[in-house]
């Protein structure tokens, strides 16, 4: 009987709270949710499932986890969430808050107001204006297809306690890998530049960044994802707010109404042509999950559906690895949360298309962009290691395939072999001619080389980073004076190996 009582009171989540209301998202065991949730101690808890399929990591119910919104009112201290309490409050009208939504017609288009009326008397508000005609306000012109999201100040602080949950909680949810020492030097440099990223001015620029040549990055390589990982690993509230702005910027500023995909980087927010190889939605997805934002979550799923319906366009020398690997990686990130038949079919097609490109003699997946003619092939190893291998590994976790797994392992062995050579620099490109490796391009202190390392097995990478020459080749990136700081920062901070 005693053991049963202890099990019933097992703490699912310990949340540091103050007197103010708390609201955020977290993944909890399905078996616990079936029993309801409550606080072990004074205070009140209200919860609901986020609108997602149940993610299963195994065949047993005990392995399943589901994302939920948690709203807590409790005295200052630590609120402990345990199983065995009230069921979900799906309608948004419960003992902690009442949620209301109002849609209004406006001269420029439409306005959606979402209000949380807390039982403490606090009122939070989110207002989203959608522009269906050009609109001038505050000296800025909002074009058709754009939106503007504004929050009451207190509402933005409700999710901050998630920063104090601890690294293990974020590893359990899947946002971060289990901490280790492999990427510790890079993590230190990320922390140093974290508050130096060149965020653009104005309402339209908020949440986006500029790089050299006055190019607007449109969150190139998923800056929102990189920022969110830093925010939760370092417990940084300023960075959490910036990650939310970056995710909202994607939805409010960068989405193309025709394709459903974001515009790529360019001289303006909405000037670059949308391309499947320039779509990143993990940052948007994870911000939505951790802040329990249904609108952002739906936006992420909409982008995923649009991505699933997009066919890679390049042929011959215009065929690019990124147009296959990035979409596969992003679709698999969504599918890790639960099944979705259209996304599964699209991901399976992309994976099969990449698999057919494997060349055992070159130990890589060949794409048209690398074909030089006369039996010569340029291996863009930073793309193979940074895009293709991680995308296929994510696919194999959902769809195990022994033959494909061996091809991926072969490509990884080739990466490790080239990286392990006692030469100055990190090889990001090499050339094959008639099956022989004839040339390498090695670089020092380049963030793109850090992306390449994402495809290297952790044990091999741990061995490599112990070498002083290898660490020197990776260098002190990112640096504050980098003219492409936001891009370099993102290329590193998005990677699992940096957080191991």
**Strand order of the biggest β-sheet:** 7-8-9-12
Helix share bin:
25-40%
**Structural class from helices and strands?**
alpha+beta
Task: Extract low-pLDDT stretches.
Answer: 1-8
- Count of helical regions: 17
Distance between the termini: 41 Å
Task: Give the radius of gyration.
Answer: 23 Å
Percent of residues in beta strands: 15-25%
The gross shape turns out to be globular
Query: Largest sheet, described in full?
Result: 4 strands, antiparallel
What is the averaged pLDDT score? 94
What's the β-strand tally? 20
Features:
4-stranded antiparallel beta sheet, alpha+beta, 500 residues, disordered N terminus
Task: Describe this entry's structure for a reader.
With 500 residues, the protein is α+β, with helices and mostly antiparallel strands. The protein is built from 17 helices and 20 strands. It has helices spanning 2-8, 30-33, 167-173, 184-193, 202-205, 223-234, 237-254, 282-291, 294-308, 322-335, 341-355, 381-398, 402-419, 447-452, 458-464, 468-474, 485-493; strands at residues 11-17, 22-29, 37-39, 44-49, 65-73, 77-83, 97-106, 109-118, 123-131, 135-137, 140-142, 147-151, 210-211, 215-216, 358-359, 364-365, 371-373, 376-380, 426-433, 436-443. It has a 4-stranded antiparallel β-sheet with strand order 7-8-9-12. The chain has a 4-stranded antiparallel β-sheet with strand order 17-18-19-20. Helix 7 (237-254) crosses helix 8 (282-291) and helix 10 runs parallel beside helix 12. The longest helix has 18 residues, at 237-254. The two termini are 41 Å apart. 44% of the residues are buried. Residues 1-8 have low confidence and may be disordered.
């Amino acid at each position: 009987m005693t053991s049963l009582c202890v099990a019933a009171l097992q703490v699912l989540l310990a949340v540091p709270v103050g007197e103010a209301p708390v609201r955020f998202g977290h993944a909890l065991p399905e078996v616990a949710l079936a029993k309801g949730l409550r606080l072990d101690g004074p205070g009140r808890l209200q919860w609901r499932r986020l609108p997602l399929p149940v993610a299963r990591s195994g065949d047993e119910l005990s392995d399943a986890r589901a994302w939920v919104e948690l709203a807590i009112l409790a005295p200052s201290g630590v609120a402990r969430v345990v199983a065995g309490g009230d069921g979900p409050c799906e309608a948004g009208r419960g003992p902690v808050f009442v949620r209301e939504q109002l849609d209004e017609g406006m001269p420029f288009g439409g306005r959606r107001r979402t209000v949380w009326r807390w039982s403490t008397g606090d009122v939070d508000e989110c207002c989203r204006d959608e522009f269906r005609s050009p609109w001038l306000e505050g000296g800025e012109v909002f074009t058709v297809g754009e939106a503007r999201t504004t929050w009451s100040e207190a509402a933005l602080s409700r999710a901050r306690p998630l920063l104090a949950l601890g690294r293990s909680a974020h590893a359990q949810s899947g946002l971060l890998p289990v901490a280790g020492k492999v990427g510790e030097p890079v993590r230190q440099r990320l922390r140093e530049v974290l508050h130096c990223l060149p965020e653009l001015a104005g309402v339209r620029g908020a949440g986006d960044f500029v790089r050299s040549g006055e190019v607007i990055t449109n969150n190139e390589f998923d800056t929102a994802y990189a920022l969110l990982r830093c925010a939760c690993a370092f417990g940084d509230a300023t960075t959490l707010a910036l990650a939310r702005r970056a995710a909202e910027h994607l939805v409010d500023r960068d989405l193309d109404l025709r394709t459903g995909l974001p515009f790529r980087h360019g001289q303006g927010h909405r000037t670059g042509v949308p391309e499947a190889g320039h779509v990143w939605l993990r940052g948007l997805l994870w911000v939505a999950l951790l802040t329990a934002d249904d609108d952002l979550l739906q936006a992420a799923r909409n982008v995923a559906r649009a991505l699933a319906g997009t066919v890679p366009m390049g042929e011959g020398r215009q065929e690019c690895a990124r147009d296959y690997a990035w979409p596969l990686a992003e679709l698999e990130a969504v599918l890790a949360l639960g099944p979705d038949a259209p996304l599964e079919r699209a991901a399976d097609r992309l994976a099969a298309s990449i698999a057919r490109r494997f060349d055992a003699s070159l130990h890589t997946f060949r794409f048209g962009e690398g074909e030089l003619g006369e039996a010569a092939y340029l291996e863009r190893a930073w793309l193979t290691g940074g895009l293709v291998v991680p995308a296929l590994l994510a696919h194999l976790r959902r769809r195990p395939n022994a033959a494909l797994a061996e091809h991926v392992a072969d490509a990884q062995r080739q990466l490790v072999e080239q990286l392990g050579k006692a030469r100055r620099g990190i090889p990001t490109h090499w050339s094959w001619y008639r099956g022989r490796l004839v040339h390498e391009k090695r670089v020092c202190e380049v963030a793109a080389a850090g992306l390449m390392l994402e495809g290297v097995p952790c044990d091999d990478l741990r061995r490599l980073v112990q070498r002083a020459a290898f660490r020197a080749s990776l260098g002190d990136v990112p640096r504050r004076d980098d003219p492409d700081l936001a891009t370099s920062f993102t290329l590193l901070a998005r990677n699992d190996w940096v957080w191991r």
